[in-house]
Amino acid sequence: MKKAMTVVYPVGSGLYINLTNKCPCSCTFCIRQSSKNEFEHIETLWLEHEPDFDEVVQAIKDTDVSAYNEIIFCGYGEPTEALSVLLKTADFLKSNYNIPIRLNTNGLGNLINGKDITPLLKGRIDAVSISLNSSNPEIYEKTVRPVFGREAFPALLDFARKAAAFVPRVVLSTVSTTITKEDEDECRRLCESLGVAYRIREYEPPAV
After folding, report:
1. What is this structure's pTM?
2. Per-domain boundaries in the chain
3. 8-201, CATH topology level
4. Bridge-partner residues for 159, per DSSP?
């Protein structure tokens, strides 16, 4: 498999930061399951090694950050797998740029790190987008295939609820065409009960 060191990459008006290959999930719809594993028009996001803080900062400095409307922690892996680098990078960004920062996550950061990490997001992260994928724990587990098994779904909901106390905007999302309309309606009700927003993302099939 081809690997490179794409630490930052653009998508539309957003600048994305790719911190890690690690992820505790193996989602059935994820582009990681593709044999090609590349985003269109950019080199592979599979990292040769996990970048340290200095490497991430250098990649940011080599980019015209002012050209983007948002900075997003999101890559081929789960950003909270590299929590220390994520937090230090967020501090650097807040100190040097006036651009909103979003964390795209599977919501399992507390399980990954063995502690509640949501207070650490305060003042660092402006928005959190969490992949919910279904309101049904059994469907979620079959779709996401987390290494944590049945612990994962309630941990995700708990993470979302707790994050809402520290982050201005928290959104749970599902992928269109992957669940039923009834499940989408139930996801919307679930998000309302948690005090967070709900979004349906467009399905992007893996490259072949």
Report:
1. 0.91
2. 8-201
3. TIM Barrel (3.20.20)
4. none
